């Protein structure tokens, strides 16, 4: 099956049979999936990702809101080109992107499951950020749910905000927390962290960052 045939499958079998609900811009999209064989891989604040068993190397990212932003994400992927620490764009439609499927576990889920996050993952993401900046992009909104770890390597799976201007402190703050807290105290033992605890940290971080911006 080539990309055009896959696009036909997306537009005839996937898109008519899913409903993406957006209760809040700060929470993930809610998916009502009635599409046979299509699996929901994950959801972010603006889009949901689907996979089909006939094309295990691809995923389809369907936007649920802010549809103009899809054009910006296309430009981001065109600038990134081929890089091991990013996905790759293979095609797109009015509401969706066809991307290389990235396997692994997010840093957020690794914390939940007690899976160690080696320093190499952090180094890979730092190198990927430098690479993006060299291509006139602004790595934005890089955090634990947008970073996947696979066989000890780090991969950024969401680049939809790389076109934005300004300074995003999420990655520097995460890197600092890894260096000062995770690496010396958690790396060797890598205990399971309860989800309520991670969510509390996430909300506290967002709250304190918002206060800082107002100063």
List keywords for this structure.
single chain, alpha+beta, Transferase(Phosphotransferase), domain 1, 39% helix
Walk me through the structure.
It is a single chain. The protein is of the alpha+beta class. It has 2 domains: 3-100, Phosphorylase Kinase, domain 1 (2-Layer Sandwich), CATH 3.30.200; 105-200, Orthogonal Bundle (Transferase(Phosphotransferase), domain 1), CATH 1.10.510. Strands 3-4-5-7-6 form a 5-stranded antiparallel β-sheet, with helices on both faces. The protein has a 3-stranded antiparallel β-sheet with strand order 8-9-10. It has a two-stranded antiparallel ribbon with strand order 1-2. The chain contains 6 helices and 10 strands. A hairpin with a 2-residue loop joins strand 9 (147-150) and strand 10 (153-156).
Give a short synopsis of this structure.
Helices cover 39% and strands 20% of the residues. The protein is of the alpha+beta class and 215 residues long. It has 2 domains: 3-100, Phosphorylase Kinase, domain 1 (2-Layer Sandwich); 105-200, Transferase(Phosphotransferase), domain 1 (Orthogonal Bundle), CATH 1.10.510.
